[in-house]
């Protein structure tokens, strides 16, 4: 096991990914942010810019819409992956998952808006 990979910070959400380092996932970009390199095929590569990342893994427009006010600080990318346990992730620049939407769960927009507000400040 890699040192530090099993650390989990209490960020006030009980989803098993929240507060952990985002697992590196192979991605097939479908709706990349125009400001993000479109040839990226790994989640770790998307974090190299030092910005937050909203990773929409099943093309849920309501997820992207709820976080749209943070587009100046958070890149949004829609991509497919082999993971079937999560629909979307908000990832801090340090790779820590700040919010997760479990597969098939209804979006609680209040919770999603709270997470980028906490980590990236008030919307522009």
Q: Can you offer a commentary on this structure?
A:
With 124 residues, the protein is of the alpha+beta class. The chain is 18% helix and 23% strand. It has 3 helices and 5 strands, in the order E-H-E-H-E-E-E-H. The protein is globular. 32% of the residues are buried. The model has no long low-confidence stretch (mean pLDDT 80).
Q: What is the share of helical residues? A: 10-25%
Task: Quote the distance from N terminus to C terminus.
Answer: 40 Å
The whole-number mean of residue pLDDT values reads 80
C-alpha geometry: globular
Question: Which properties best describe this structure?
Answer:
five-stranded mixed β-sheet; alpha+beta; 124 residues
List the helices and strands and how they pair.
Layout (H helix, E strand, L loop, with lengths): L27 E4 L11 H4 L5 E5 L4 H6 L7 E7 L5 E6 L5 E6 L6 H12 L4
Parallel strand pairs: 2-3
Antiparallel strand pairs: 1-3, 2-4, 4-5
In short:
This protein has helices at residues 43-46, 61-66, 109-120, and strands at 28-31, 52-56, 74-80, 86-91, 97-102. By secondary structure, the protein is α+β, with helices and mostly antiparallel strands.
